Amino acid sequence: MADWNAALYRQFEDERTRPAQELLNRVGLDDPRAIVDLGCGPGNSTELLVQRFPKADVLGLDTSDDMLASAKERLPDCRFIKADIAAWQPEQAPDLLYANAALQWVPDHTALFPRLLSLLAPGGCLAVQMPDTLDELSHRLMREVAARGPWASLIGDAGAKRAKRQPAAAY
Ligand SMILES: C[S@@+](CC[C@H](N)C(=O)[O-])C[C@H]1O[C@@H](n2cnc3c(N)ncnc32)[C@H](O)[C@@H]1O
Questions:
Q1: pTM of the full predicted structure?
Q2: What is the percent of the chain where pLDDT is above 70?
Q3: Are 24 and 127 a contacting pair, CB within 8 Å?
Q4: I want to staple 60 with a disulfide (CB 3.0 to 4.6 A). Which of 1, 17, 37, 85 is the partner?
Q5: Whose CA is nearest to atom 15 of ligand 1?
């Protein structure tokens, strides 16, 4: 994948932000000081974090230049950095690591999840939501159409880049 397209992503932002809100509703922390939005996209999920925890230091990180530019435009007072979740190391231990619809793009969950947990401050929280939609009819049809036309070589097998999600019990 060359890059994400923030404008296209934002076309369905309301729908995309609902699971982000639901994930945040499950976070039981009262007063986290340092929060990191892993795979912050265009800042839609970061904005929810800022609204709920206005006193916290919120950092958004992403690998996509276009997503980061859009996030900075939305939240000019927030910090955003370009970094890969798989390798990123925090400067200070975060109280909340929040990842909505991002970790399905990061490989090797067996190593990733313990690593993320090890980065947390004592009493911290790792909040993760990953969509489980690959076998939905919409996604099967998208793959079929993507593989069929003259665009097939441009699109490639984008779905194969998604990390293999393990059964819930494994997490
Ligand atoms: C589906 S969007 C989620 C955006 C936002 N968190 C939300 O709730 O709508 C996934 C984001 O994860 C980012 N991403 C994918 N792999 C990443 C990685 N290894 N490190 C950092 N960001 C990554 C993508 O660039 C994209 O912006």
A1: 0.94
A2: 99
A3: yes
A4: 37
A5: 105
Q: What is the arithmetic mean of pLDDT over 20-45?
A: 98
Q: Where in the chain is the domain with CATH 3.40.50.150?
A: 6-129
Sequence-distant (6+) residues with CB within 8 A of 164 are: 109
**20: phi then psi, degrees, rounded to nearest 5:** -65, -40
Quick one: residue 123, left, alpha or beta (phi over 0 = left, psi -120 to 50 = alpha)? left
Closest CA to 52 of 72, 73, 77, 26: 26
- pLDDT value of residue 54: 97
Question: How far is the centre of ligand 1, averaged over its atoms, from the C-alpha of 165 (Å)?
Answer: 16
> pLDDT at position 168, please?
86
Instruction: Locate 170 and state its tokens.
Output: 């494994």
- Residues with a CB atom less than 6 Å from ligand 1: 4, 16, 20, 39-41, 44-45, 61-64, 67, 84-86, 100-102, 105-106
- Site to probe by mutation for ligand 1, drawn from 66, 67, 80 as the one with most ligand atoms within 8 Å of Cβ, is 67
Atom of ligand 1 nearest to the CA of 3: 25
List pLDDT tens digits, range 139-170: 899 889 988 989 998 887 777 777 878 888 99
Specify whether domain 6-129 bears CATH 2.115.10.20. Answer: no
